[in-house]
Amino acid sequence: MSITVKASLGKEKYYTEVIAGENTLITDEPVDKGGGNKGFNPFEILATSLASCTAATLRMYIDRKEWNIDTIHVEVELENFPLTKRAIFKRDITFEGMIPDEEQMKRLRTIADACPIHKILTNDIEILTKFS
User: What SUPFAM superfamilies is this protein classified in (predicted)?
Assistant: First the structure.
């Protein structure tokens, strides 16, 4: 699977329009970093990718099992440690409606770890850059 996103940043400091297919979102930096705080910052976007993918992956599984779970909440905290080149994602998942039993929770943990973004973040990553 291949996806393409395009980011465009003009002269308004850090206000970036990102386009993926027919969808657009805005990223920015907080005011204390010189931005206008008009959108998510790049770290928030990264954490959002894990949170939203986890929720969607769990929803697919829960729906297939026909479990009566109304809402899935996924909170992701990202701690970045540039000096040690380490990042820690803390993911907290809660449910509304039916509360899964111990066996179901064990299966849901496996499903959460099977989300495609989780897999990408825990596999080898290579970034190839060219200037055109």
Answer: OsmC-like (SSF82784)
